[in-house]
Amino acid sequence: MRVLIAEDQPLLRDGLTRMLTAYGFEVVVALDDGSQLTEALVEHRPDVSVIDVRLPPSFTDEGLRSVIAARTEVPGLPVLILSQYVEQLYARELLSDRAGGVGYLLKDRIGDVQQFIDALRQVAAGATVMDPEVVSQLLQQRSSLAVLTPRERDVLRLMAEGRSNAAIAADLTITEKSVSNHINALFAKLGLPPSADGHRRVLAVLAYLNQ
Amino acid sequence: MGWRFARGARESGQLLVGAVIGLPAPFLLAMILLSVPASLVAGLGIVVFGVAGTLLRRLANVQRDRAAALLGRPIERPYADHPEGLLPRARAVVSDTATWRDLAWLVSQFGLGIAGLAAGLGLWLAAVECLTAPLLRALLPARTGFDPAVLEFTGRSTLLGWLLVPVGAGLALLAYRLPRHLLSGQARLAAALLRPTSAAQLSARVDRLTATRAAAVDASAAELRRIERDLHDGAQMRLVAVRMNIGMAQDVLDADPATARALMAEASASAGSALTELRDLVRGIHPPMLADRGLAGAAQALALSSSIPVELDLRLDRRLTAPVESAAYFVLAESMVNAIRHSGATLIQVAVADHGHFLSLAVHDNGRGGAHAGRGTGLRGIQRRLSAFDGSLRISSPTGGPTTLEMELPCAS
Prior knowledge:
- Chain B: One of its GO terms (molecular function) is kinase activity.
- Chain B: InterPro entries: HATPase_C_sf (IPR036890), HATPase_dom (IPR003594), Put_sensor_dom (IPR025828), Sensor_HK_TwoCompSys (IPR050482), Sig_transdc_His_kin_sub3_dim/P (IPR011712).
- Chain B: The chain crosses the membrane at residues 12-32, 38-56, 110-139, 159-178.
- Chain B: It comes from Hamadaea flava.
- The complex is a heterodimer.
- Chain A is an alpha/beta fold.
- In chain A, 50% of the residues lie in helices and 14% in strands.
- Chain A contains ten helices and six strands; from the N terminus they run βαβαβαβαβαβααααα.
- Chain A has helices at residues 10-22, 37-44, 62-73, 88-95, 113-124, 132-141, 150-160, 165-172, 176-189, 200-209; strands at residues 2-6, 26-31, 48-52, 79-83, 102-106, 128-130.
- In chain A, strands 2-1-3-4-5-6 form a six-stranded parallel sheet, with helices on both faces.
- In chain A, α7 packs across α9 (176-189) and α8 packs across α9.
- The radius of gyration of chain A is 17 Å and the shape is globular.
- The N and C termini of chain A lie far apart (35 Å).
- Chain B is α+β, with helices and mostly antiparallel strands.
- Chain B folds into three domains: 2-194, no CATH class; 200-285; 288-410, Histidine kinase-like ATPase, C-terminal domain (Heat Shock Protein 90, 2-Layer Sandwich).
- In chain B, strands 1-2-3-5-4 form a five-stranded mixed sheet, covered by helices on one side.
- In chain B, β2 and β3 (358-365) form a beta hairpin.
- Chains A and B meet through α4 and α6 of A and α10 and α11 of B.
């Protein structure tokens, strides 16, 4: 799987390169700067990218802006954004094109290597992976999610974190069949009708990001 | 009609008060002028000067309040805080320009007060005499030894007596109208002489700025101490624990892989907590969102993460200087936290508007009100942050609500 890395701190960039190579990814470019990022994303069209929000030259949200620009040219280009902190505003901007294939994780999560690699693969496959911190913030404050049962909320949380049905079933120690029952129930409650585009998991996350 | 009489009487009364206030002038002038050279020779002069100075200030303050009420704008007191002790205090009062301006005012008030009162009363007297001239002529049949001035003037002619009645009416009108002009003249003079000179205003401003600068420096020093303590007791300690666990794991790796795995897991957990603490610390020093997107973005982020719905009205489309941006952000954040924690509100409205040379911030909630700066550290913290920039805070929070905080923060455009 071809991957692009944009990270200005050499230690983390080299670490990521080594780790991803060890897990069978092919690192096509590793940038230390955001000025060419949009062009690089559009030109190489990697299977997935790992991008720091804050990059030179502006050291603000260069990474995020470049990704959003690249995704308007290549819709659904899979990208995982890394940040030292999570902001709902950024999560919302990332998801606003509703195309899926995005992830937004705290840099800390790289420490949990297996889960990080899983998240990266999920994003490459077109899923949406939100950091548990974003998800828990949303679950705490959005009262409109009161229509969901506690179990459905658990399922939604894990779904937003990018887990597959099997992983959710293992996590909650229930059967995969009841996971899919819960998912269907909450799709209905959130007003997401069955459709062909297959992005309902993304839309479920968006449903409360946009509330 | 009644109120007109009441008003006329009140104004005449005020003229009387004005005259009375001016009356001690010669006495105080003499005391002060004599006491200054006298104090060079003997100590008694200082006491006399002190008493005279105090009386002078009392009188000046009374007049400041009267003039302020009449002119509808406050007249600030120009007196600086004087040092303790009789001698230093006396010296400070002598060298204070305000003392001499007060004295100049009092002397002029002496003349103006008496003249005003005389004019006010004299006009009424003359008006009454003119109006009653025909009656007087009839009632005083024979030439008496003491005739009213009018009759002296007109002789005892009946015709002239009747002609005086309209003159009397005119005088009465004048007597009714004139006092308010006299009073406002006195008030204007007082305002001109008794308000702080621009030099005094400037020096008061320097004093205030010195005080707020000291507060700002103190606050930032306290902040640095807090950061140092948090790093030292928090993240640093956790990283030491991480190294220790890894070191131990290295030692037992071959002999006891299970223990090594447990130690590594512990190390990983400690490193995770250290990261969380560092992240919170960074957010407390300077929120990353503020650095990325400026005040507008940071306010949006605040609104998004609030547990109560927030309506935002942002009229700001430029980046402010970093210190102003940061102060504005923390002031907004603190106001919103107050509203969320204490007000029981269901809606918060936040308005930020850029007026070029200042930024106005308003945070309104529909909660139970009753907030005031004396209680809790939140509002005082807001005040301190604003005062470091010469900004202002106005709190409106009647019991029962709603609460509105209006803040202004100067910022160069």
